[in-house]
Write the structure tokens for this entry.
Amino acid sequence: MSPRSCILIALTTSVLTTCNNSRSSSLLCHALSSQTTRQSIHVPPSSTSDNLPPTRRSFVQKAAASSAIFLPLLSPLNGNNNNANAAAPLPLLTSSSTSPQRIEEIGGGFDLFSPTSSSSLSSSDVFYPSSMSNTQWKVQRVVTSVEGELGQAAVAWKCLGGGEERAFTSKLTEAYNVRFVDAPVVGMSGNGVVDDAQYEFEGKRARGCILDRKFEILNRVGKLLQSDDVISWGDDDGERGSISYARNDYPGRIELKTVQRSIEPPSEAGFGSDELIRIQSSAGGGALFVGSNVYRCARVKRRFRRGFDESTGKRIIDGIEIMLTYRVLDGVAGVEMPTSTSKSRIRMTEL
């Protein structure tokens, strides 16, 4: 300890013994003690490397120095013995706004039970090129990658109509048939009937077709469907993004509902869709949760391009599919933070 520090400590001790009779003396003692502490904890610059391990004395000195910033500052003494001369407490850290601040990393969510409208459903269905109407195709699809929570991805894949589970976990190729049918005329406007299946291709008006989702479930799930089950497709409003079915390898009934949709109409560059799907299914977990249903949420993005098979000359459609899963809390899906991402490659060949 330096001689200057010893003198200051001695002075402080002397003052402390004589400052018990008045409030102003107490404040003076406090000021001298604070000043003594600040000066006694001064750590001179070290000439050694910072990479060397600290000694016990240097550690204590640095810790005291870091705590010195919390010492209160005294107002100048003006001789008046009143509370106005007392040290004012340091202000608490507060937000610049009086309203609660939202954590930006959480972001917003999507209410899975809010009434659907034209802002969430841009079309009544996903439309395929008019040349595919009333045709059947053989589908070959394979999962190429899965990232995130494998369990949630596998459940969503199965509920959305996946075949045997090993096709997902082992990345085996699925093969099944699908068919396309004419799109019914459904109004998406309150002012009258609007044929939203129409699109323009090469300067001409055309009318798209739709995938028969009931036929797809029937063929893709196949023998895993319950024999006495009736697949329900569509709802009373004419919206064909709803489907309900039951399967042998999953407890309870599965209900799918498209709550958000945007599409890319057919063009020379291709076509595609983006659908957010609400999944209602069993909670699982064995006998403990029998009869209990939960809501899940998945986003399915698809992009296709048309072509011809070089060997057979048949029409083919190559595509990719990206499936995202989200957590659901009180009916709100955290669509800004997916829990898993699955990618699949799809090829359809006309029969």
Notes: The CA atoms of residues 34 and 71 lie 7 Å apart. Confidence is low (pLDDT under 50) at residues 18-50, 63-106. The helical segments are 3-17, 23-40, 56-67, 150-159, 165-169, 213-221. The longest helix spans residues 23-40.
